[in-house]
Amino acid sequence: MENLELIESFSEFKDDKLIDRVTLMAILEEVFRNALKKKFGSDDNFDIIINPDKGDLEIWRNRVVVADGEVEDPNQEIELSAARRIEPDFEVGEDVSEEVKLIDLGRRAILALRQNLISKIHEHDNTTIYKQFKDLIGEIYTAEVHHVRHKVVILVDDEGNEIVLPKEKQIPSDFFRKGENVRGIIEGVELKGNKPMIVMSRTSPMFLEKLFEQEIPEVFDGLITVKKVVRIPGEKAKVAVDSYDDRIDPVGACVGMKGSRIHGIVRELGNENIDVINFTANTQLYITRALSPAKVTSVTLNEETKHAEVYLKPEEVSKAIGKGGYNIRLAGQLTGYEIDVYREGVEDEDVELTEFSDEIEAWVIEEFKRIGLDTARSVLEQDVKDLVKRTDLEEETILEVVKILKEEFEE
């Protein structure tokens, strides 16, 4: 059949797009049937025979022979005299099959056919890619840096698929160069128009969990279970692990000798500090472990409000709170409890910061509370220069607060 560039497209698409034979034939038939509907009003009485391997296709129109002058639907019926020009022995009531040449559709229709074919192929590709990456959500994926922009890094995988790594999904210390490989998890994929947008994340807790699976054999094999992961990307993370085999020490297996097993994960995450703790159903013990490296003296729980009062020796308080308040914040996220820290043995002599609201502005008090300091003594025990680093307060403001608090205890 004479079909020129259109039929040559068969092998092009089959080779370049890696489309299977059945899908290719279905797309081709759909495209041609749409063209037939447009020209003849219906495609119900057409047979389309496609042979992609030979680059060949045939279109046959089936009509019923009627007496001359009695044709009501030219697409479904043919006059006896016209039928006998095809085959001289046709009679009224018989079926006639007649081949339709592409040229009969007109040049404009042929050009539209090719464009429609290309569009359908791309649409199929995009749908396939969308489904492929939908199944990969939550899994680690590696792609190469193609272009670095201010708010996003564009990555390309081995198949040429474009993946975006937004600024907010990057670890603060991340620095990318064109051509280098980047690992992250596929966090989401959505169709923008007909094109899939694939989003990668390196800040998701799931990325850390999957790194544990990838780097620690016992986790991969299911001997150790990662119960929960919480992170402040690039700064600190806490991972609760458990094992149903009493012979396995889950924390020791994850960390390795001198941190050998977890070192690669820490490096991947920009030297993020990772605390691995043993999970337990005992909430008080779980909170105690979550506040590591601080040594907790006692824990009082309010199950209704999910609130925990934790008592420690004065020298342990700063460890429990941690740099920037990260330790206590992550411990709360890990356990699901709001944790308040109290100094053992000095609570009766201490004063809540809110008691100074007449002298200290509310936003200043909130800034101290943000890093876990909610009493006068808790602030006075801190180094002023350290407080400047950990809060958004000026040194002058902190010194003024310290002066006010000291006056409370000077008698």
Automatic annotation (TrEMBL):
It is found in: Cytoplasm. Residues 202-278 form the Transcription factor NusA first KH domain. This is Transcription termination/antitermination protein NusA. Participates in both transcription termination and antitermination. Residues 285-344 form the NusA-like second KH domain. Keywords: Cytoplasm, Elongation factor, Protein biosynthesis, RNA-binding, Transcription, Transcription antitermination, Transcription regulation, Transcription termination. Coiled coil: none annotated. The keyword Transcription applies. Residues 5-125 form the Transcription factor NusA N-terminal domain. One of its GO terms (cellular component) is cytosol. Belongs to the NusA family. Monomer. Binds directly to the core enzyme of the DNA-dependent RNA polymerase and to nascent RNA. It comes from Imtechella halotolerans K1. Gene3D superfamilies: 3.30.300.20, Nucleic acid-binding proteins, NusA, N-terminal domain. It holds the Pfam family KH_NusA_1st. GO terms for biological process: DNA-templated transcription termination; transcription antitermination. GO terms for molecular function: DNA-binding transcription factor activity; RNA binding; translation elongation factor activity. Its main location: cytoplasm. The gene is nusA.
